[in-house]
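To whoever is on call:

I kicked off a structure prediction for a single chain this morning and the downstream step that reads the tokens threw a length-mismatch warning. I double-checked the sequence; it's 209 residues and nothing unusual in it as far as I can see. Pasting both halves so you can look.
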Amino acid sequence: LLHAYLREKLAEQPDWLREAEAAHERYFLRLLAEQRRLEAQGRQREVIATLQEDWENFGLALERALAGGDPDTLAGVAAALGERPEARSALGAATLERAWYLYRLGRYDEARAVARAGLATLGPDDAHSARRARGQVTLGALEMQAGRHERALEHYTAARRSAEAAGDEPYLAVVLGNLAGVRHALGDPGGALALYGEALERYERLGAL
């Protein structure tokens, strides 16, 4: 009730409303970027708790940013997510970030639709990019969750091609591990072992082991 009252009063002052919406967007995009960093540090429980608590705010901030379409808004989205590509790439990257978080929250149907939309949004410069690889991994994870291993293999194989073309060795190691898991699920232990070996070699080269 209080939120409705405040929004009604803000609507009477359009300049104030725009300023409030912009401040909301900036805050939650920065907070979303911080969750990505925490996840990389292995603090998944903390990240999921934050996402569950503020998911509607995260979603609203992203939707408002994506709907804006102006250069300043797109630059803000890109900066919040650690990237500064062209407009279509920024939109696609932001959308794919949201798809991954939807997957992590168990909202699988939404995650699938958003991931497909994100991949379709990416521009020609992202035909084989690290951003595209991440979107393909999200779709692969969704297919694995649903038990559709052959389709998961297709997505992870496409992710491997994208990561290789982008020269993203750390993420390629992650993708190879995913591919190994699919091969194991498909009853191919030899193929799984070979892929795990490739992944481990890369981790060793990168100094991660």
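Update from on-call: the warning came from a stale cache, not from the record. Cleared it. Sanity check on the structure: Residues 81-85 have pLDDT under 50 and may be disordered.
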